[in-house]
Design goal:
115 residues; 5-stranded antiparallel sheet
Length: 115
């Protein structure tokens, strides 16, 4: 049965898996280097994209959602992650331009013995 506007398509990746990928990415590249990213799951499989610029401070969610809407249509599911200030990363699931789920990851600075 094909997805309808009220039923998200069968994603190859789930929200928790995407959150895990985002956490790994932030740990690997660091908070300061993390750029907004999204994953779109469709019939052709998962597609990932990274915005190659920062979002303006204070309007991150609005700009992130606008970018997501340009990437996929109203009947498609998208996972998105972006920095949201104060060393936090928001991860959201969007379907039909509505936020279904949202979580925030606090990123604590880590000092090594050499710091």
């Amino acid at each position: 049965m094909p997805p309808t506007k009220s039923q998200p398509d069968k994603a190859l990746m789930n929200f928790e898996e995407y959150v895990s990928i985002v956490k790994d990415s932030v740990c690997e590249t660091g908070y300061e280097c993390f750029l907004p990213s999204l994953c779109h799951s469709g019939e052709a499989g998962d597609k990932m994209a990274v915005l190659q610029t920062e979002l303006s401070e204070g309007g991150e969610e609005v700009l992130a959602r606008k970018w997501a809407e340009e990437f996929a249509g109203p009947g498609e599911s998208i996972f998105m992650a972006y920095r949201c200030g104060q060393r936090k990363v928001s991860v959201i699931e969007i379907f039909g331009f509505n936020v279904l789920r949202k979580t925030t990851i606090a990123v604590e600075p880590y000092a090594t013995e050499n710091d």
